[in-house]
Amino acid sequence: MSNTTSDDSLITTEVQADSNDDRAASAAETAVAARDLNVYYGDERAIDDVTMEIPEKRVTALIGPSGCGKSTFLRCINRMNDMIEICRVDGDVEFGGKNVYDTDVDPVALRRKIGMVFQKPNPFPKSIRDNVAYGLKIQGFDGDVDKRVEESLKGAALWDEVKDQLDSSGLELSGGQQQRLCIARAIAPDPEVILMDEPTSALDPVAASKIEDLIDDLAEQYTVIIVTHNMQQAARISDRTAVFLTGGELVEYDDTAKIFEDPEEQRVEDYITGKFG
User: Fold this and answer.
1) Which residues contact 209 (CB under 8 A, 6 or more apart)?
2) Alpha carbon 247 to chain centroid distance?
3) Each residue of 80-130: pLDDT tens digit?
4) Coiled-coil segments, which residues (predicted)?
5) Cα separation, 190 vs 113, whole angstroms
6) Cα–Cα distance measured from residue 240 to residue 257, given in angstroms and rounded to the nearest whole number
7) 111: closest CA among 231, 224, 191?
8) Which domains does the chain carry?
9) What is the per-residue pLDDT across 14-63, written as a single tens digit (0 to 9) for each?
10) Is residue 208 within 8 Å of residue 119, measured between CB atoms?
11) Closest C-alpha among 23, 33, 91 to residue 57
12) H/E element, 271
């Protein structure tokens, strides 16, 4: 993978050109679509009438200042907001041609197809093997569990580091390894979409770089939707970028190069160049 720096970009960053350009050059079907989506916490609106289509097998970044609704939007996709009592969702989130908020949709089954990786690594107090196999056992997987564990750890670029210590606790791994373990756990049930809520914010730069490289690889097989406060990271790893601003408004959504080099909205340029946020 070669790196290039865009002189026209509104931020200074090294962009991973090869793989992103290859993905951008090919057409993509829609993996997830929001239609007139509004989200409320009690009387407070967190997402304001968002409509957008997210392409499959691409990396889509959600950026914006704290409190703009990007994590709330992410959690709508696999109905994690169901766990917040005061949260109310209006509008549609379509996945596989169906609104995930239809009454006949099982949220647990939905989350097998739309996995999630959180900001802070959260391995279970179990062995590395049992961490990865956890979701498989919950869903009654009747295949070769050890084979799937190995495939998932390889998919998370962790196998070579842990293959001789699969019975050791996942809590004994470094922070970066723990996050890759959580990614392995997320992909083990064979999802179609992986949601990532600031997956590198708690990691050191070296560990964060490994996760970024991994995200680029994952997009060959999965749709990746990532929330990040790091605009350089969004520019490096994503194909599409959505900019949320105060009040849960989706202000602009376009190819990442367009967002960072020539945004349509002045507010987006002001945010990217650090005038606010």
Assistant:
1) none
2) 21
3) 999 999 999 999 999 998 999 999 999 999 999 999 999 999 999 999 999
4) none
5) 7
6) 8
7) 191
8) 30-122+190-273 (3.40.50.300)
9) 444 444 666 655 678 999 999 999 999 999 999 999 999 999 999 999 99
10) no
11) 23
12) helix 266-272
Please give the C-alpha separations between residue 3 and each of 12, 236, 240, in angstroms, as whole numbers.
13, 9, 18
- Whether the CB-CB separation of 78 and 195 falls below 8 Å is answered with yes
What type of residue sits at position 108? V
Rounded to 5 degrees, φ, ψ at 23 are -70, -40
Cβ atoms 78, 242 nearer than 8 A: no
pTM listed for this prediction: 0.90
Cβ atoms of 179 and 121 within 8 Å: the answer is: yes
> CA-to-CA distance for 25 and 18, rounded, in angstroms?
11
Count helices and strands (H / E) in the chain.
11, 12
